[in-house]
Write a structure and sequence with these properties.
The complex is a heterodimer of chains A (353) and B (126). Chain A is α+β, with helices and mostly antiparallel strands and 353 residues long. Chain A has 8 helices and 20 strands. Classes of the chains: A alpha+beta (353), B alpha+beta (126).
Chain lengths: 353, 126
């Protein structure tokens, strides 16, 4: 089990530690609900040291990445980032990630903790001469500072180190990386720095007023926004179009990309399923991964939840499931089976909040 | 951790108040509520249900997980705390008083003797 460079800090703060993607990580400090609200209303800070940081460099890096990833890399200027996906040949999702262009021949990728090894193996198998891949995951720790007060907090803490524009990246002279991105749906930024410096940033940001938040709140915050979690909502058996991520897939890229032929064929034939957002009506338990979704008239099981929780903002159970396309329209009603009882649910538009 | 002396405890962290064998309140300990963290949903049994010691009498859900609550004694459910179904916060805020979940009519009062007293329960927490 790997330990974050912030592990001792988490213990001092009274965190409850759980295993996640091979790491011991804090699931909560004071409580998931309070942490969730602090990010929606003020500012919270998360340890994201478990996430992977890769660098791809080389003169032809742009065309290499355009072949490797679904989004249009040529749309990026220096210091800009984009959400993108890495697919297998069948169009299934290996990983979703954020790609930042540091320079025309140097790109920074932030990938899921659970996929670092797989990503590195896949990218290595695709490498061409003069393109290099470096895995910085063990070098960097990371924190995400999120919430409506995140920017003001940073500006008072480090007025000399301006944050990048939305989705952008900046690198300070001594190597601190700032990204104006996140996984909560709130404004904020992510900071990556060497493992021996990250605890100082974490302490200073808490000192400046951010609430320490664990993976529990990270999950409820992202789910309220309908953001998929790889391994739960994304996998190699579903395409980005099924996951509702078509916006980040540029089939029109002239040279194509890995998986593009399969995606084009699937679009032609019609999608088999869609990832829908389900919301329970009225007083009901939280939703959980694995709960079955059925057609209330026939009783047929149509799918199972790949994510589920209670929305702290709405106070109702919310979840996501892949359902057959013919059932996947907003406003359709279903039953969700919880401990032998059926609870009514409806497909709603993403985001939930 | 608050462990009142007038209650008896199960190793699975439920308490029962033995003052009234006809309607003994049952809940979860301060330690248990802290472990569960914010309770967001509670499912209670029907009044009149007959249960054996160790049966599940309630399901408590936090944001992260669902947990069964087991009865420390056998008997019949004579009352449930409906107010908690609407607003479960007292389970966390006041687990020994307003956070009671069910009241049970004991069918075998000797079961109380088999439970932990406050000192013994504190020992298993330490």
């Amino acid at each position: 089990m790997l330990r974050s460079p912030l592990h001792d800090k988490h213990l001092e703060l009274g965190a409850r530690i759980v295993p996640f993607a091979g790491w011991e990580m804090p699931i909560q400090y004071a409580g998931i609900v309070a942490e969730h609200h602090s990010v929606r209303n003020e500012v919270g800070v998360f340890d994201i040291s478990h996430m992977g940081e890769l660098e791809i460099a080389g003169k032809e890096a742009e065309s290499f990445l355009n072949r490797l990833l679904t989004n249009d890399v040529s749309a990026l200027s220096d210091n800009e980032g984009q959400y993108t996906l890495m697919l297998n040949d069948e169009g299934g999702v290996i990983d979703d990630l954020i790609l930042y262009r540091l320079d025309h021949d140097r790109y920074f990728l932030v990938v899921n903790a659970s996929k670092i090894e797989e990503d590195v193996a896949w990218i290595s198998s695709q490498l061409v001469p003069d393109i290099s891949l470096t895995d910085h995951s063990e070098v960097y720790g990371g924190i995400a500072v999120q919430g409506p007060e995140a920017i003001a907090l940073w500006e008072s803490l480090e007025p000399e180190l301006p944050l990048p524009e939305r989705n952008g990246i900046s690198e300070s002279a001594d190597g601190t990386i700032l990204c104006r991105t996140g996984y909560t749906g709130e404004d904020g930024f992510e900071l990556f720095d060497s493992v021996d410096r990250i605890d100082d940033w974490f302490a200073r940001i808490i000192e400046a007023g951010a609430t320490p938040c664990g993976l529990g709140a990270r999950d409820t915050l992202r789910l309220e926004k309908g953001y998929p979690l790889n391994g739960s909502d994304l996998d190699e058996t579903h395409t980005p179009h099924e996951a509702g991520l078509g916006f980040f897939v540029k089939l029109e890229k002239v040279a194509g990309f890995i998986g593009s032929e399969a995606l084009a064929a699937q679009k032609e034939k019609g999608l088999p399923s869609r990832l829908v957002a389900l919301r329970l009506s009225g007083k009901a338990p939280p939703l959980r991964q694995g709960y079955e979704v059925s057609d209330p008239s026939s009783g047929a099981i149509l799918g199972t939840l790949c994510s589920g929780s209670l929305s702290p903002t709405l106070g109702v159970g919310i979840g996501m499931a892949y359902l057959p396309v013919s059932f996947a329209a907003v406003g359709n009603h279903f039953s969700i089976l919880i401990r032998g009882r059926e609870f009514p649910a409806e497909i709603v538009k993403k985001p939930f909040v | 951790m608050n462990v009142p002396e007038n209650l008896h405890y199960a190793e699975s962290h439920e308490w029962v108040n033995p003052e009234n064998f006809e309607a003994a309140p049952i809940g979860i300990s301060d330690h248990a509520q802290a472990e569960l963290s914010d309770v967001v949903y509670l499912e209670l049994p029907e009044v009149g249900k007959v249960i054996a010691k160790g049966d599940s009498i309630a399901v408590i859900e936090s944001v992260k997980a669902a947990n069964d609550i087991y009865s420390p004694v056998s008997g019949e459910i004579v009352e449930v705390n409906e107010a908690l179904v609407e607003a479960p916060e007292p389970i966390n805020a006041d687990p020994y008083v307003t956070g009671w979940m069910v009241k049970i009519k004991l069918s075998d009062t000797s079961e109380i003797e088999g439970l932990l007293d406050s000192a013994a329960y504190q020992k298993i927490l330490s």
